[in-house]
Design goal:
The chain is built from three helices and no strands. The protein has helices at residues 2-24, 27-48, 51-68.
Length: 69
Amino acid sequence: MNGKKGLGLLLAGIAAYGLYKYNKMNAAEKKQLKDKVKAKGQKIYEEYVPQDVKDLLAKVKPASAQENN
């Protein structure tokens, strides 16, 4: 149990450091980081999500977009 407590504290420290570094970035660096994360997310989606799930999501997206208008 004590090991899990230390792990949680470590993860909280890493998260706090990441937030600190993000807040110190200028606008161009933040945009570059966001674009990089989006590109990696898209790559993971294209490689690992099965086609039937992609088809299902494609049907759901237009419906939710119409509800917002």
